[in-house]
Specification:
By secondary structure, the chain is mainly alpha-helical. It is built from 14 helices and no strands.
Length: 290
Amino acid sequence: LLHIDSITFTAPHLVIYRSLRKRFVRVICSVNQAALVDGRQRIRKGVRARLLEFYNNTHKMTDQQVAHFTEVFNRNRATLALFSKCSTKDELDVVRDAFFLGMASQLCPNEYEAMRESLITDDTAFDAIASSINTDKGLETTVTAARASPHWLDLVTAVHAVGSAVGSDLDGIWNTLEKGRMEWLGAVTAAHPLKVILKEALNKDKNKTERDEVDMKMVYIYALSLSIESLANESEAWRKVVKMKNKANPLQDYNVDLWDPRKEEWRPLDLGVPEAAERGGSSFQAAWDA
């Protein structure tokens, strides 16, 4: 059920493992054959979780090990930064798992080597990776093959164990990046039709001024804010200020005199939308120019 090369099993570890194994064996015997595969996976995760919790509580990292973790994390920041290039949740998942692979290659050599050997000895995985080298599918193909390895769960668990031991919440770090990216992508997608209308109007206006572009950008900022959860109250406050009847159509009954960026209610949107863009790995100007 369990393979953790990096952990030395002492008597307390074995007590936990044996008690859990007996309990889970009884559960296995009571389920039908169709559920065995899923059951084994859940059992394995449960045993590993208990063992790793005990391990982390009894094994403290030295200052040198903490410094090494920090160094490895910094080396893999470039992989994390790829989140800003993602357009879908699936692409984000690939970047996340590529990050785990990179971390494991330097922090968890036993688990990483076991996974690597499984890919080399699997003809299908090896051929897929080899044929994707130097292509735009290279990273995705490698990650897909790694996930299919029987050692993938061991590798990911080991990386998280090391992170936990040094007080680094790897899942929390990633979830923050993913949430920011997905929220910004959603906002840009939702506001895109209105942006097209605004930019077409500007392009057709031969007498447009810099002020006209500022006015159009204000409307676009408002449209983006509708999809940003943290700005829900602020966008509603602005709707009332400009006497907008339909929040989904800011151009209806648009009154340029009411859309004054000097008003106090505008500041939260003027600052909040660019901040949301940064959390999503982008910028407001990039979204406007796209």
